[in-house]
Amino acid sequence: MKAIRRFTVRPVLPDPLRPLSDLARNLRWSWHAPTGDLFQSVDPECWAACGRDPVRLLGSVGPERLAELAGDRAFLDRLDAAADDLHTYMTGDRWYQTQSGTRPQSDQLPAAIAYFSPEFGITAALPQYSGGLGILAGDHLKAASDLGVPLIGVGLLYRHGYFRQSLSRDGWQQEHYPVLDPNELPLVQLKEPDGTPALVSLALPGGRSLRARIWLAQVGRVPLLLLDSDVEENDLGERGVTDRLYGGGSEHRLLQEMLLGIGGVRAVRAYCRLTGHAPPEVFHTNEGHAGFLGLERIAELGSEGLEFDAALEAVRAGTVFTTHTPVPAGIDRFDRHLVARHFGPDVELPGIDVDRVIGLGRETYPGGEPGLFNMAVMGLRLAQRANGVSLLHGSVSREMFAGLWPGFDPEEVPITSVTNGVHAPTWVAPEVLRLGARQIGAERAEEALTVGGSDRWDSVADIPDEDIWELRRSLRTLLVMEVRERLRASWRQRGAGTAELGWIDRVLDPDVLTIGFARRVPSYKRLTLMLQDRDRLTNLLLHPERPVQIVIAGKAHPADESGKRLIQELVRFADDPRVRHRIVFLPDYGMAMAQKLYPGCDIWLNNPLRPLEACGTSGMKAALNGCLNLSVLDGWWDEWFQPDFGWAVPTADGAGTDPDRRDAIEAAALYDLLEQRITPRFYERGESGLPDRWLEMVRHTLSLLGPKVLAGRMVREYVERLYAPAAGGHRAMDPDAARDLARWKTRVRAAWHGVTVDHVETSEATGTAELGTTFGLRVRVGLGDLGPDDVEVQAVSGRVDEEDRITGATPVPLKPVSAADLEGRWVYEGPLSLDRTGPFGYTVRILPSHRLLAQGTELGLVAVPSEDVLGTAGLLMR
């Protein structure tokens, strides 16, 4: 029989155990090992059966066991210590507070930052993530908590989360969408003073409304607000808006993103009103899905009397936008008529002209489609500061979005980069943590993993080889046990009987070199590159002296048929009885699996099509556990690869390379590395009987690479390079300043056609000069209706290529030397230093200049010499 109504019955804890409820509701338990150990000791079997979820644990433990614990003095002492530790963690000063105290009043860090993301991977007990973007967002919140950064996270609560994955008998991906009950998750409802749920509401076409309640997940010190449209006040269609992560058609996705951005700002305002939390001075848009938040903030300022253009400037000043995809197909784009239908009179944001809304997202650059509304383009136009997530991705993003800044070389497009990091306490195995604590003490080990700040962890050098090797083997053993358990469960789901599964007891070997590969399965990540030469792969797996074993996991998007075919191809190979003890595919890749997979592997494999991997943080998590990386030079590996840390797979990414040939070349290079360099090093033994050269690489990975890949390092960079300047911009942009800047931009854009570089001359007329020479530059410019206070005239110099394009350009401002002449022309002068040898050139340009601009490229306006302007360029240095 099926129940006609469902309730969640919460346990009544004995008074001495009441602190367990507070500990369970703060997700710090998911990365704080002592608290996790405390919950495990409540009932180890139940803890495992509940998926290591303390909320479910406390709802499952019987009253007899609770009564027993309430009288257990040793347990109560541990409970009191954990509660006291959480109180200290929540209330004490941390890194951010010490930084704030050292800054002058005019340069104070933001009082609060709102961080918007469509998904958050905090813990497997709160399945609101699909892949790297969500895991990164979760790690960002955890690191901010550890550092004391006053972040407020904002997302959606998906009632089905992302799908659960299984396999059919023939290896085809199957999707399942279990229903999540928020009352059974580590969440509490945000409520009004009268006890009613706090709601946000959006106006929809046809007089309908989209309402959402606000759930609060406490991530250490950071509140995470999750909006849920499955409320009785909504009609059936609106109740399903937050049903699935990345599900539904265009309008469904548009409504999700309107709720995230517009509803999310309203949720933040409600949270601050109800709790007294400081209102955010900075809004961080993590990928374009949340871009509508800027429109809501413009509407807020409009209701206070600020005109659209001025409100836009005020919003931009305090907004940071992070792009995560180098693949145009990964960006949400909507038909502009669909977007227009949801804004304007009688729907959302009636005070904003619909054409202004559409203009923010239109692809009005060469190669763009003006009929589409691009969420990333809107995100960039609504943020004064933007970044990619690795150095290479920053470069790719500047190329990708260069059309928004015509006239500038891609390297000058105002998109910087902050390389991602990972939250070490979440991803480092407890066994590794214990070894570190034994070496340098628990407190120092925790600080090293959370705050970071050191370029190296020298204490790793003092750990004996024997201890490192024993640690690596024990982690490999734990992985083997995990794989066998998951593989057996998978085969039963595929219809196999117990009598068919005896071979699983011989799957993998704790003494064999273990390779891991786990990620989402779009085609560019090339799940099946390893299958290019199946005979060669088989020989590697079955080598009599130097075998390898491979553990693979990953999900294809439910609508991605080609990705599903790749999984099936891999699964069918792994099902072959000849090799199935050496290569396995594990379905339902998620955080719980990943936390066992990263530590247990010796090699982490990554072979995307370069440069389509924005960052690729899974290899970082593996590295923190002493796993070496084997990767194409893409994402973070392009930035930090050293031979000490692993191996780089050569790429064949020339413009004329056929894709199939490219795969064949790179697969052959991968096999070569495994056969000739990696397996010999792993199995080679030194005088001690240990693989000395392998352990040296493990040691270098931990000591030199480890500090770089920390989320603590990443969040500190966001604070120092993006949040602090954005907060300063926000404070400077009062209504008068915003109006002044908006009027100035309008005036400059209207007058820019009159800005010209008319004449350039130098004090040197020869085509060669000595290194270190400085000569004078004199430039005559026309400014039309503008004046010297509106512009900056620059000399731009550097090496030149065969086509006289300047590379590694250095801009130097020139100064006006007199008032305008009778023709309205101005003369600028300045020195030009020849500081590099070889072919050297310079040019002159004019940019808009205003004290409230973050950079001179912001308006996308530039004036350069015309072809007939006299001057000297391309000086040859010797």
From TrEMBL:
In its keyword annotation, does this UniProt entry include Transferase?
yes
* Signal sequence range: none
CDD domains assigned: GT35_Glycogen_Phosphorylase-like (cd04299)
The protein's required cofactor(s) are namely: pyridoxal 5'-phosphate
The record's EC number reads: 2.4.1.1
Q: Which InterPro entries match?
A: Agluc_phsphrylas (IPR011834), Glyco_trans_35 (IPR000811), Glycogen/Maltodextrin_Phosph (IPR052182), Glycogen_phosphorylase_DUF3417 (IPR024517), Pyridoxal_P_attach_site (IPR035090)
Main EC class the enzyme belongs to: transferase
Q: Which reaction does it catalyse?
A: [(1->4)-alpha-D-glucosyl](n) + phosphate = [(1->4)-alpha-D-glucosyl](n-1) + alpha-D-glucose 1-phosphate
* Domain DUF3417 residue range list: 13-126
User: What's in the keyword line of the UniProt record?
Assistant: Allosteric enzyme, Carbohydrate metabolism, Glycosyltransferase, Pyridoxal phosphate, Transferase
**Similarity-based family:** Belongs to the glycogen phosphorylase family.
Function, as annotated: Phosphorylase is an important allosteric enzyme in carbohydrate metabolism. Enzymes from different sources differ in their regulatory mechanisms and in their natural substrates. However, all known phosphorylases share catalytic and structural properties.
PANTHER family to which the protein is assigned, alphabetical: GLYCOGEN PHOSPHORYLASE
This protein's name: glycogen phosphorylase
What species is this protein from?
Streptomyces pratens
